[in-house]
Amino acid sequence: MKKGNKFLVYGSLFIIVTFFLFTNASAKMVVKFGHVAPPFHGQSVGVDHFAKYVMEKTNGEVEVRTYPMGQLGGERSMAEQVQSGSLQLAAITSAVMSNFVPQASLIPLPFVFPDRRTAYAVLDSEIREKLFSYFPAKGFMVLGFTENEFRDLTNSKRPIRKPEDLKGLKIRLMESPVYIDTFKQMGVNPVPMPFPEVYNALQQGVIDGQDNPLYTSVLMKFTEVNKYVTITHHILTECFIIANLDWWNSLPARVQKIMRDAAYQVEIVNRGHTLRDMLSMSVMSKKDPKTGKVKPGPSIYAVARKQKVQIIELTPAEREAFKKAMTPVYAKYRSIIGADLFDAFMAKIKEVNKYAK
What we know:
The protein has 357 residues and is of the alpha/beta class. It is 46% helix and 18% strand. The chain has 15 helices and 13 strands. Helix 5 packs across helix 15 and helix 14 crosses helix 15. It is globular, with a radius of gyration of 24 Å.
C-alpha cells in the first residue's frame, strides 16, 4: 500500500472510531412509562418523581418519558406491551395484573384491607417479596407499588344503599376476573372496559355506572354524568410498577439500583400525596413556587355537590351488608392464588390488626 493511501485509510478509521466513541458517550437511553392516572393524582405525581429522580441520578444518561391518562392504551393493553417488550415500564392495577399473574388477585379482594395502615403494614412486609416472586415467570419484574384510593360506586339510575340496589345495573369494572366475580354475586351486569373508555360509555348510556375512588371520579368528570355516589370503600386500588424482564436484565446494575431507589421514592411521594389529600379532602392541591407551601384545592365533596351529585355515606351496618355480599369470592380465589400464599397473606392482616389494638 502506498504511503499516501495508508494515511488516507488510517485517517478514515480514526474519524469513524472517534464518531462512534462520541456518539456512544452522548447516547441517551429513552424509557417509556405508561399509566392511566390523571394529572394532580398522587400516582401521577409519584411517576413524574420517578422520571425526575432517574434523570438526576444517571446524569441525564436515562430519560424516562411518562404517559399518563392511558395515552399508551388501557391497563391490560399496557401490561401486554410490557410483557412483549414494546413498552419498558408501566403502573398497572393489581386487579388487571391478575390476568397475567393470578397471585396478584390477593390485593383486590373485596374488603380485605380495613384501612390504609393495615394495607401499608402488610404490603411492606415479607408478603411483598413473596408476591413479587411470581412475576418473572410471566415476563415481568416488579419494582414496587403505586396507589390510588379505596373504591366507591357511582351510577346514573338510583341511590345505592344495599347490595340488592345494584341488581340489573350495567356497571363498568376493570378487566379483572376477581372484580367480575365479586359484582356478579350482587346481580350486577358487569361490563369489563379499559379506563380511557369509561367517560364516553357513561355519557352515551352504554353503562349505568362504574367503581372508582371518589377522587378519581371527580377528576375524570365521571360525576358530571353519574349523579349518585355510594361511599363503599370496598377495594383499595394498589398498582404494581412493572418492567419488561428481558429489558430489565439488560440494564447495568448501577441503573437497576437507581430505578429501584426511584420506585421506593414513588411509594413515599404517592402515599404522602394521597394521605394529604385525604386529610384535607381536597382535589388538585398545588405547591406555591415562591413559598414551597402546598395550597389545598377545593373539597372533593364540595366539587361533587357542586355538580349536583348525591353522596350516600353508608352506616356501619349498611357497609357490613356489602362486605357480607362480596366476600364469598374468597373461597374461590384461595384456590386460584394458592393456599400457602393466601393463608400467609390473611395471617399477616390478622397479625397487624392484633398489634394495632
